[in-house]
Amino acid sequence: MNTFKALVQREWLQHRFGWAMVSIAPLVVAMLIVTLGQNDFKGELEAEMGTAMPTVVTMICLAIATAVTTAVLGATSLILTAGLARRDHGDRSNEFWLSMPVGHGASLGVPLLVHLIAVPVVAIGIGLFSGIVASLVLVSRAYGVGEWLALPWGVIAPAAAATALRAAAGIPLAILWLSPLILLLMLATAYFRSWGLVVLPVGLALADFGVQRIAGFTPITEFLDRLFHNAGGAMFSPNPAHPDVENPADLMVALGNAPAWALSDFLRALQATISPTLLIALVISAASFALLVHWRSRSV
Is 96 within 8 Å of 109 (Cβ atoms)? Predict the structure, then answer.
């Protein structure tokens, strides 16, 4: 536990400033747009929603802020992850970590957990907070602060919380599906430095082309397509069974059904993991991680 805590603290101390800047950037941009832009919601949507328009604006703010913040921090984490294997070798700090009672597996595994799972999950919470702030400003400017305070928070809060928990629970599943690509990319950058970012996609493309010429099909392309499809499904269902929202009553029904949908959609994502595709992905991931540990142990 002390080793795990020390490795997590290392990630925090090394990246906290960057994480903070990236976390607040979407909120700052949103505030500039909201405060300086024209906040006019008059149109067909407002005619349909009527008095429920402040609720619609709030839900849109929550959804966009959460999605953007999670996407930005998640993309940042993926970029950092690609260079994790080599980061200790540029300044010889690998010698320091090798002198500590920390195994090579933990030295690689804990940062992966932090960057690929912990950071995106925290980003969801930051995104929700940013969405609440944005909705406060936007709704207050358009309808008055009283309208924001009078929103049906008893319905909005459970719906937003259930959706956020659904996304957070889907992140580990999505990472499982994408783990072969992530670990192969780390392995490529470990052996080829920054050229690994070119070597891996070019190598996969050439291998796929060779198989196509010999056997007439593209296994790598089809396998990657399955990985990305299932990773997306791990976050949210491609075709969620939501009713069409055409009036305030439909909106309240959709928000009220959100917790039940979140649970059923997560169970669907779990069922999708019972697949030979994921088994192959995990075998590739395990082999890649083992090669990374071997490379680290021999690269002092």
Answer: no
Least confident of 104-113, 142-151, 242-251, 280-289: 242-251
**pTM of the predicted model, to two decimals?**
0.86
Q: How far apart (Å, rounded) are the C-alpha atoms in residues 149 and 254?
A: 21
3-state SS record for the chain: CHHHHHHHHHHHHHHHHHHHHHHHHHHHHHHHHHHHCCCCCCCHHHHHHHHHHHHHHHHHHHHHHHHHHHHHHHHHHHHHHHCHHHCCCCCCHHHHHHHCCCCHHHHHHHHHHHHHHHHHHHHHHHHHHHHHHHHHHHHHHHHCHHHHHCCCHHHHHHHHHHHHHHHHHHHHHHHHHHHHHHHHHHHHHHHHHHHHHHHHHHHHHHHHHHHHHHHCCCHHHHHHHHHHHHHHHHHCCCCCCCCCCCCHHHHHHHHHHHHHHHHHHHHHHHHHCCCHHHHHHHHHHHHHHHHHHHHHHHCC
pLDDT-based confidence at residue 245 (cuts at 50, 70, 90): low
Span 40-49, pLDDT tens digits: 555 555 555 5
- Is residue 15 within 8 A of residue 80, CB to CB? The reply is yes
State mean pLDDT over 100-123.
84
Residue-wise pLDDT for 14-28, tens only, equals 888 888 888 888 888
